[in-house]
Design goal:
- The chain is about 60% helix and about 10% strand.
- By secondary structure, it is an alpha+beta fold.
- A hairpin with a 6-residue loop joins strand 2 and strand 3.
- InterPro entries: Bact_polysacc_biosynth/exp, GNVR, LPS_length_determ_N.
Length: about 240
C-alpha cells in the first residue's frame, strides 16, 4: 500500500517539533559565533599596485606597440612575482621563517582586463607584516625583472600602507552565523521528520487503517474518568435506615 503524506501533515509535524527546530538553529548560531569571534585567527589584507609601462616615445605607433607588448608580458610578470626567485629574497630581507611556497600562499596577483596595472594583494595574521611583504615583493620584483628579462618597464604605482585601524577580511562572523542558522534549521527539520517517521505508535483511526489495511467500521467513544464513575455510583447507593 502506497503511503502518502499531505501538506497538512507536514505542517503538523513541523509545528509539533518547533521547539526542537528552534533550539538546534539557535545552538548552531551560538557555536558559529563563538568559533568566529574567539577561536578563528583574524586575517588582514593589504595590496600594492605595479605599473607595467615603457618609457614615453614620440611616435604614437611605437607607443601603441609598447602597450600591447606590456599587456602580453603581464601574465608572465604575474608568474615571476610569485616565483622562488622573488619570494626567497623577500623572505630573506624580512627575516621571515617562511619558505617560498608558504609565502606564495599569502600572495595573490591579479590585473583587470587590458590593464597595465598589476595588483599584488597579501594576507597575513599581522597587518604590519602584510604591508612589509607587499612592498618588499614589489621592490624586489622591480629590481630583479631588469636582469631576468632585460626590460625596464616596471614601476610601483601605489605602495601598501598600514591603516590606523585595519579591519580583518576573514573570518566574517555574521556570514558564518547566517550559514550556521540555515544549517541548523535544515538539521532541525530533518531530525523532526526522522523522529516522526520512527514513531510507530498508533494515534488515531487513520493509523489503524494504514497498519491493518482494513477500513474502520466504528469508533468507541472515550470512557468516562474513574472519578466520574465513582461519583455516579455513590449517588445511586441506597442509604441505610436508622435502627
Amino acid at each position: 500500500m502506497e503511503e502518502t503524506i499531505s501538506l497538512q501533515e507536514l505542517f503538523t509535524t513541523l509545528k509539533k517539533r518547533l521547539g526542537l527546530i528552534a533550539i538546534l538553529t539557535v545552538l548552531a548560531v551560538i557555536i558559529a559565533g563563538v568559533i568566529s569571534y574567539t577561536l578563528l585567527t583574524p586575517i588582514y589584507e593589504t595590496s600594492t599596485q605595479i605599473l607595467v609601462n615603457q618609457e614615453k616615445q614620440e611616435a604614437s605607433q611605437v607607443i601603441n606597440q609598447n602597450i600591447q607588448a606590456d599587456l602580453q608580458l603581464i601574465n608572465t610578470y604575474s608568474v615571476i612575482i610569485k616565483s622562488p626567485a622573488i619570494l626567497d629574497q623577500v623572505a630573506e630581507q624580512l627575516d621571515l621563517d617562511l619558505t617560498a611556497e608558504q609565502l606564495n600562499q599569502k600572495i595573490t596577483v591579479s590585473n583587470a582586463e587590458n590593464s597595465q596595472v598589476v595588483n599584488v594583494a597579501v594576507q597575513d595574521e599581522d597587518p604590519a607584516v602584510a604591508v612589509d611583504i607587499a612592498n618588499t615583493t614589489a621592490n624586489v620584483f622591480q629590481t630583479e625583472i631588469t636582469e631576468l628579462m632585460n626590460v625596464d618597464n616596471v614601476s610601483i604605482l601605489s605602495p601598501a600602507v598600514l591603516k590606523e585601524n585595519p579591519v580583518p577580511v576573514a573570518p566574517n562572523p555574521m556570514l558564518n552565523m547566517a550559514i550556521a542558522a540555515v544549517v541548523g534549521l535544515m538539521l532541525g527539520v530533518g531530525i523532526a521528520f526522522l523522529l516522526e517517521y520512527l514513531d510507530t505508535s498508533i494515534k488515531n483511526d487513520q493509523d489503524i487503517e494504514d497498519v491493518l489495511g482494513v477500513p474502520v467500521l466504528g469508533v468507541i467513544s472515550p470512557i468516562q474518568e474513574e472519578t466520574n464513575i465513582q461519583k455516579a455510583a455513590s449517588n445511586t447507593t441506597p442509604r441505610r435506615r436508622g435502627a
